């Protein structure tokens, strides 16, 4: 049975819960009526929460999930889909879920998808782009795009293929079948499967274990795994983090100090590692 945890509200939103517990920022899509399908408002709110997670020094690991015990997320809300995308409150069509995918990918902290039911369409892509997926036994996975007039040929296809292989990724998109949690585990689409009533305990246990480890090491591993797939943009992110590490050295500080003190820098004092 799930342990009772006192999740503290970080910020109130309309479509999501955004909560904190012992180093974990939890984002829960709260649209059970629509199998937690997202509309532009939902996506704006997830995006803002992810921005807060990135900046908040208390948060080391992020968990993304859906409310209730039926769905993680059923993708874009088809009720608000119009020409050019999903119609926002101001009448503008948006596909802003792609920004959220990028935020998850470049988040310098682990992001865990806690999949508690259907992960379908754009909801399936959301779990795919998370670093880790922990699924309940009742979870169902699949893409529907070619059936319902949409597709995600970006990370939803390419990163899916990197994760489970080209043949299986093509099958998922071409056939639009649904897969059980056991099948998902078998194909390497998820990391583990547990009974629904143990899902949060298991997810929190994974998050706690990650928090025992060096955050900088986890950050660099994530960036390195991304960089291999992301070409120059992956390299840009990786290099940005290498620069961050360099700034922390005496060697880099000597360069800056010499400039400010209007003298020639002395880099000879620093070790040259083999
Ligand atoms: C999830 C499914 C399989 C659950 O089936 P179940 O349990 O039989 O429930 P239902 O009776 O079907 O659903 C219960 C109520 O929930 C509503 N609902 C479910 N999903 C949605 C949804 N996505 N949008 C709006 N409403 C939804 C049902 O209508 C029902 O309501 P009532 O009671 O009033 O009838 C099943 O529900 C299902 O298959 N859902 C649809 C899944 C789907 O096709 N999603 C959209 C897929 N496309 C995307 O997500 C694309 C978005 C995207 O990420 C993207 C990315 C890159 C580039 C472009 C895009 C893009 O936006 O196109």
Structural commentary:
The protein is an alpha/beta fold. It has two domains: 8-212, 2-enoyl-CoA Hydratase, Chain A, domain 1, CATH 3.90.226; 215-261, Lyase 2-enoyl-coa Hydratase, Chain  A, domain 2 (Orthogonal Bundle), CATH 1.10.12. Helix content is 44%, strand content 20%. It has ten helices and 14 strands. The strands form three sheets. It has a seven-stranded mixed sheet with strand order 1-2-3-4-9-11-14, with helices on both faces. It binds o-succinylbenzoyl-N-coenzyme A (S0N).
- Report the helical percentage: 40-55%
Briefly, what CATH class of the largest domain? Alpha Beta
Low-confidence stretches: none
| Class of secondary structure makeup | alpha/beta
At a glance:
Helix content is 44%, strand content 20%. By secondary structure, the chain is α/β, with parallel strands linked by helices.
Supply database-style keywords.
274 residues, alpha/beta, 2-enoyl-CoA Hydratase, Chain A, domain 1, Lyase 2-enoyl-coa Hydratase, Chain  A, domain 2, 2 domains, seven-stranded mixed beta sheet, four-stranded mixed beta sheet, 10 helices, 14 strands, binds o-succinylbenzoyl-N-coenzyme A, menaquinone biosynthesis, ClpP/crotonase-like_dom_sf
Task: Give the helix/strand layout.
Elements: E1 8-12, E2 16-21, E3 24-29, H1 40-55, E4 61-66, E5 71-73, E6 81-82, E7 85-87, E8 93-94, H2 97-106, E9 111-115, E10 118-120, H3 122-129, E11 132-136, E12 140-142, H4 145-148, H5 155-164, H6 166-175, E13 179-180, H7 181-186, E14 192-194, H8 199-211, H9 215-247, H10 250-260
Parallel strand pairs: 3-4, 4-9, 5-10, 9-11, 10-12, 11-14
Antiparallel strand pairs: 1-2, 2-3, 6-7, 7-8, 12-13
Helix pairs in contact: 1-2, 2-3, 3-5, 5-6
Pathway: Quinol/quinone metabolism; menaquinone biosynthesis; Quinol/quinone metabolism; 1,4-dihydroxy-2-naphthoate biosynthesis; 1,4-dihydroxy-2-naphthoate from chorismate: step 6/7
Site (Important for catalysis): 86, 247
EC number: 4.1.3.36
């Amino acid at each position: 049975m799930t342990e009772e945890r006192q999740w503290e509200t970080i910020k109130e939103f309309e479509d999501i819960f955004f909560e904190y517990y012992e180093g974990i920022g939890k984002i829960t899509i709260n649209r059970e009526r629509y199998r937690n399908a997202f509309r532009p408002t939902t996506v704006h709110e997830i995006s803002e929460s992810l921005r807060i997670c990135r900046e908040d020094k208390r948060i080391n690991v992020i968990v993304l999930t859906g409310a209730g015990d039926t769905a993680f997320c059923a993708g874009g809300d088809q009720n608000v889909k119009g020409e050019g995308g999903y119609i926002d409150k101001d009448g503008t069509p948006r596909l802003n879920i792609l920004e959220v995918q990028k935020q998850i990918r470049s988040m310098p902290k682990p992001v865990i998808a806690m999949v508690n039911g259907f992960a379908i369409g754009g909801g399936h892509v959301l779990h795919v782009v998370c670093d880790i997926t922990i699924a309940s036994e009742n979870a169902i996975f699949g893409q529907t795009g070619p059936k319902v007039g949409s597709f995600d040929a970006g990370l939803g296809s390419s990163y899916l293929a990197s994760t489970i292989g080209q043949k299986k990724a093509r099958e998922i998109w071409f056939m639009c079948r649904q897969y059980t949690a056991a099948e998902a585990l078998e194909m390497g689409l998820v990391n583990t499967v547990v009974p629904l009533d143990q899902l949060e305990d298991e997810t929190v246990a994974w998050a706690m274990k990650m928090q025992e480890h060096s955050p900088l090491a986890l950050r660099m591993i994530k960036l390195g795994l991304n960089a291999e797939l992301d070409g120059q943009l992956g390299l840009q992110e990786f290099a940005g983090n290498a620069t961050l590490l360099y700034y922390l050295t005496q060697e880099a500080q000597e360069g800056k100090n010499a400039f400010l003190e209007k003298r020639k820098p002395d880099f000879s004092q620093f070790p040259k590692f083999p």
